């Protein structure tokens, strides 16, 4: 059979170049949503030392952008979410190879720290180019490729958690687990933080939802009114913990909390919490 006349051909090099640009930009220029949230937090913060830390974060982000330097020395693990149009035909190379080459070139050209090891327990040998990336792919109607990336630091990643709650735990069980996770994290994830929450699905699905939730625009709300209200309720509870900027105390422990949910089994209610530091570096593009 001949190729469908409606298929759109996309060169693998275009995917590679797009990934490269996204990671180069994300590591030196914080998003407007995060920047605005930090400014708002500074205006509200009552703790003098908390205000000082928030001012330092603002200064750091400005200098990084002006001098094209990495926002943070941990330039992150490359996380890539792709929505791949089913009418796309990739030519001139492999899909995952193009993504990894884009990451490789970005981290070499940007002089970003390479932080990936080849296996986790024994040799832990650095791969030398920050690959392989973590890639999640969804197939959807259409002839475009939508890409969302994050350079995920591990000081905050290490403070993440997942718990297999049951339906009887209810809303309060969900709230308690999320707030307790942030309380235990304390200063370790470099607050103020962004909290991504995944509810439902399975153990693994909840974790992916939580990761994706950290990348949603700070200050946005879930389209479901009950979940939107829950986001606000939990964020308020977290900011009453008093951890504050850099863990020195104050009103700003988190600048955002985003929840994503998915259908789940009648017997379960998985909840995952993925924590991201204030250097929430992400970017989006459409090919």
How would the blueprint of this fold be written?
Elements: E1 8-11, H1 12-28, H2 32-44, H3 48-67, E2 77-85, E3 88-91, H4 95-109, E4 134-140, E5 145-152, H5 154-157, E6 161-165, H6 170-185, E7 193-201, H7 203-214, H8 225-239, E8 254-264, E9 269-276, E10 281-286
Parallel strand pairs: 1-3, 2-4, 7-8
Antiparallel strand pairs: 2-5, 5-10, 6-9, 7-9
Helix pairs in contact: 1-4, 2-3, 6-8
Provide an overview of this structure.
This protein is α/β, with parallel strands linked by helices. The chain folds into 2 domains: about 10-30 and about 70-150, 2-Layer Sandwich (Dihydrodipicolinate Reductase, domain 2), CATH 3.30.360; about 155-280. It contains 8 helices and 10 strands. Strands 4-2-5-10 form a 4-stranded mixed beta sheet. It has a 4-stranded mixed beta sheet with strand order 6-9-7-8. The protein starts with 7 loop residues before the first strand and ends with a strand.
Structure, briefly:
Helices cover 39% and strands 25% of the residues. It contains eight helices and ten strands. The strands form three sheets. It has a four-stranded mixed sheet with strand order 4-2-5-10.
């Amino acid at each position: 059979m001949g190729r469908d006349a409606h298929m759109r051909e996309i060169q693998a090099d275009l995917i590679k170049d797009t990934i490269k640009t996204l990671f180069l930009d994300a590591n030196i220029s914080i998003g407007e949503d995060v920047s605005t949230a930090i400014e708002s937090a500074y205006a509200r913060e009552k703790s003098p030392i908390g205000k000082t830390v928030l001012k330092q974060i603002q200064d750091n982000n400005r200098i990084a952008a002006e001098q094209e330097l990495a926002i943070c020395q941990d330039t992150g693990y490359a996380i890539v979410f792709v929505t791949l149009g089913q009418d796309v035909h990739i030519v001139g190379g492999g899909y995952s190879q193009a993504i990894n080459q884009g990451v490789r070139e970005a981290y070499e050209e940007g002089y970003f720290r390479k932080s990936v090891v080849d296996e986790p327990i024994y040799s832990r040998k650095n791969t030398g180019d920050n690959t392989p990336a973590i890639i999640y792919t969804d197939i959807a109607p259409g002839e475009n490729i939508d890409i969302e990336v994050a350079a995920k630091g591990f000081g905050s990643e290490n403070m993440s958690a997942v718990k297999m709650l049951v339906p009887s735990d209810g809303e309060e069980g969900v709230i308690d687990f999320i707030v307790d996770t942030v309380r235990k994290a304390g200063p370790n994830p470099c607050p103020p933080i962004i909290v991504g929450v995944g509810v439902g699905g399975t153990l693994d699905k909840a974790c992916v939802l939580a990761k994706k939730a950290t990348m949603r625009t700070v200050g946005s709300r879930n389209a479901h009114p009950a979940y939107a209200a829950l986001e606000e309720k939990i964020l308020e509870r977290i900011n009453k913990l008093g951890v504050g900027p850099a863990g020195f105390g104050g009103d700003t422990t988190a600048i955002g909390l985003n929840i994503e949910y998915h259908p789940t089994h009648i017997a379960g209610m998985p909840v995952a919490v993925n924590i991201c530091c204030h250097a929430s570096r992400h970017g989006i593009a459409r090919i």
